């Protein structure tokens, strides 16, 4: 931080700083490497880590917040550097989304698979391991969807957002309550 008594206003220095052109090439490389790595890590962590926002959305919010905050608070960060970073982040986001839409291989990374967790009132436990979700969490998600008994559920899907989409039978028969007080041997 600069001592207030040493400060003199210099618009060109505020805008460009004392950096050479090479810093912008380095920033471009840094943004590409960090954004790519972070997207892979967020994908590895799983759906629950990002909630209803996608991994790219979370990354966009964090990266832009950091770039904007640094430029506003630290006089040593030239505005053109911050503007370059923000622009590169936005371009990276657009390319990431467009590639995910256009290419199936990229889409597998950008959009996690939707998994069926319940079919005809039965838990499909073999699908739990795909997204590292356990039985207790599935039951919690079902209860949050207003389900009292597994027999009510025709199909339930674990969505890309980490939420559960539940399709109920029209006339269900109550037999396997998932309420905590009734679970007993279900767990």
UniProtKB/TrEMBL annotation:
Cross-referenced Gene3D superfamilies: bsu07140 like domains
Species annotation: Cyclobacterium qasimii
Pfam families according to UniProt: DUF421
InterPro entries referenced in this protein's UniProt entry, alphabetically: DUF421, UPF0702_alpha/beta_dom_sf
Keywords assigned by UniProt, alphabetized: Cell membrane, Membrane, Transmembrane, Transmembrane helix
Residue ranges constituting the YetF C-terminal domain according to the UniProt record: 102-173
Record's bilayer topology term: Multi-pass membrane protein
Location of this chain's protein in the cell: Cell membrane
Family that this chain belongs to: Belongs to the UPF0702 family.
Membrane-spanning segments: 21-46, 80-99
Domain of life assignment: Bacteria
Principal subcellular localization: membrane
Coiled-coil ranges (or none): none
Cellular component, GO annotation: plasma membrane
Name of this chain's protein: YetF C-terminal domain-containing protein
């Amino acid at each position: 931080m600069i001592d207030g008594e040493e400060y003199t206003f210099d618009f060109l220095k505020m805008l460009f700083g004392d950096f050479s052109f090479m810093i912008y090439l380095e920033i471009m490389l840094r943004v590409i490497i960090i954004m790519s790595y972070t997207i892979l890590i967020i994908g590895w962590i799983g759906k629950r880590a990002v909630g209803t926002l996608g991994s790219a959305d979370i990354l966009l919010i964090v990266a832009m917040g950091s770039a904007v905050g640094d430029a506003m608070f630290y006089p040593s960060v030239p505005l053109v550097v911050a503007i370059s970073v923000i622009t590169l982040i936005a371009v990276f986001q657009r390319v990431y989304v467009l590639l995910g839409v256009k290419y199936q291989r990229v889409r597998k990374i950008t959009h996690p698979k939707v998994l069926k967790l319940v079919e005809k009132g039965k838990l499909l436990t073999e699908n739990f391991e795909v997204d590292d979700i356990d039985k207790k969490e599935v039951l919690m998600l079902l209860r949050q969807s207003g389900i009292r008994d597994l027999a009510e559920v025709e199909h339930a899907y674990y969505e890309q957002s980490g939420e559960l989409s539940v399709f109920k039978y029209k006339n269900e028969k109550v037999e396997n309550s998932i309420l905590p007080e009734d679970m007993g041997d279900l767990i």
